[in-house]
Amino acid sequence: MATQQQATDEAEIRRHIDKLVEGLEKKDLEALRRLYAPDIVSFDVQPPLQHVGVDAKLANWTPVFTAFETVTYEVRDLTVTVGGDVAFAHGFGCLGGTLKDGTAIGGMWVRATHCLRKIGGTWLIAHDQVSVPLDVTTGAGVTDLQP
After folding, report:
1. Tell me, what's the pLDDT at 46?
2. Residue 30 φ/ψ, nearest 5 degrees
3. What is the DSSP string of 49-92?
């Protein structure tokens, strides 16, 4: 059974993920910067294998924000587990929107895991991993699945 502190922390982390969605939809890199630990290690869908540091993490969003006129991001099935000053959350995310040329993009669902640390009383994302399933026979990512 969760303690009151765990329940409070879980609610804070869910708000944190909501702020992540809001920052993406507003294309606000500075709002996103405040959500990540300075030394974040990110295993994102874009090469290379890892992005180290908040500037490298934010650089992943620059091409998206440049290509899209409007951005939408949906999170589904978010599960949060808290233990002291560390926590993890996992679920599914879908990035979509409208490109600058007017093309509507419905989006692709990915699996996302966020590992958080409570630093100075604030939950920050210290590690994240975003992935798509892999077809082992072809080596291609499977991008048409939905939760």
Report:
1. 87
2. -70, -35
3. S-EESHHHHHHHHHHHHHHEEEEEEEEEEEEEEEETTEEEEEEE
Spatial CB neighbours of 23, under 8 Å, sequence gap ≥ 6: 29, 31, 32, 35
Regarding beta strands 36-43 and 122-131, do their DSSP bridges make them parallel or antiparallel, or are they unpaired?
Answer: parallel
Domain boundaries of the chain, sorted by first residue = 4-132
CA dihedral 114, 86, 21, 15 (to 10 degrees): 150
Q: Residue for token digits 């993406």?
A: 24
Tokens 């890892």 sit on residue: 50
The pTM assigned to this predicted structure is: 0.94
> Which class does domain 4-132 fall in?
alpha beta
SS3 111: strand
